[in-house]
Amino acid sequence: MEEASNQNINDLPEELLLRILTFLPTLDSIQTSLISQKWRPLWSRVPSLNLPFELFPSYEPPLDTRQFFAEFIDRVLILRSNSPIHTFRLSFIYHDHYGSHVDSWVRSAITHLHARELHLDFFIHKDFHDEETLNHKYDFPFSVLRNGYVENLCVTRCDLTLPAKMSTMRFCSIGSMYLDQVYLTDQIMSDLILGCPNLEALELQNCWGHHHLKICSTRLQKLVLGYFYDSELQETLVIDCPNLFSISFDCCAFDKFVLKNASSLVEFHVDIVHLIDGSYCYWSKVVRLLGQAPNVKHLNVQNWWFKFLTSKDPFPKSFMLHNVNLLELRTGFTQYDLVGMAALLKLCPNLETMILQYLFKIGEDVIRRVTK
Description:
InterPro entries: F-box-like_dom_sf, F-box_AtFBL13-like, F-box_dom, F-box_SCFL_complex_component, LRR_At1g61320_AtMIF1, LRR_dom_sf
Radius of gyration: 25 Å
Largest sheet: 12 strands, parallel
Protein name: F-box/LRR-repeat protein At3g26922-like isoform X2
Domain F-box: 6-56
Distance between the termini: 75 Å
Oligomer: single chain
């Protein structure tokens, strides 16, 4: 007991110390080098780089903060060892002035450090931006990924510069992709799917530039679509992924939804904001896709079922959700909500678990208003 009480953190194995440092921002892990001689080189061998601009000490004027942060990252990449890392995570308030800096950071993470996960966030939060910074977006050089081993790609608020022959190239390492606030035309989406043949998980948030968006892949297993609300065009969405296991629609307002080859679909999530003009219309269009997904077991949905079942175009009487055994229902508890809930339960004869989450509504009860 006496021997154990004399031990301290310096006595821990180096592998464990490195594991501890992976949970710290890189700036903090560097500061641990002051603890003792043993700690001095450890930060340079941590299998991740976590570089959040929002946690970097601020300076006046704010432009100096960005300059010092850029110089800090340059120094980190020079001093750390060339041993491969698992994760490279960067957040930054981008300006064209720092384009060459960011290019060198990205290339270093991919080609020298062989990062498996690449997270680039150029938005962070609206409080960090002004009109000038919102007009500058980083052009991510997608072709650099051919020289690395990135499996999980996450980018926020940037443009994708794809190689001219993207559709015929093979970025085989990429298995997961998250795109947020990215200009995404129909052609870019098609090229990404074709160029990443092993893509299994795709999440698109706040993207724009599309008109007839087609997501067609024999490999894709998980698809998340969020905040497709801004366009005034009559947009269509076609999903044809025969091995798709999970799908989520969060605030999607396409004019037309098409779901094909959905026999593998097991998880189905839909959430449409209530107080948006025509929101019920988009909700009902998504819910109708259940008619093409007979094997859904996990259903997560809002309770607008009273309005849906009393509409002029409900599901056919033969429609049933025979395989649903887990239902997560966001609902109020008005008489209309309860009638809709009862109707939905009749469609799920083999339900085993139901989770009710209260649906907060601003102003009048939407379901009550639209059913008058």
